[in-house]
Amino acid sequence: MRLRVTATAQDGAGVARADDGRIVFVEGALPGEVVTAEILRVDRRWSRARIISVVEASQDRVPVCCSHQLEGCGGCDLLHVAPDAQLRMKQSMVVDQLVRAGVEAPDPSLRSLDNDEGRTTVRAAVVGGRAGYRVRSSHDVIVPDVCDAVDPAAEQLLVDGRFGEASEVTIRIGNRTGERMVMVEGSDFGVSLPEDVLVVTVAELRSGKRAWIHEEAAGRRWRVSARSFFQNRPAGVDALVDEVTAMVDELADDGVMVDAYAGIGIFAGTVGTGRKVHVIERTKECTADARVNLNGSDVRVITAPVEKWSPSPAAVVVADPAREGLGARGVQSLLRAEPDVFVLVSCDPASFARDARLLEDAGMSLDRYTVIDMFPGTSHVETVAAFVA
Question: How confident is the model at residue 74 (pLDDT cuts 50, 70, 90)?
Answer without folding.
Answer: confident
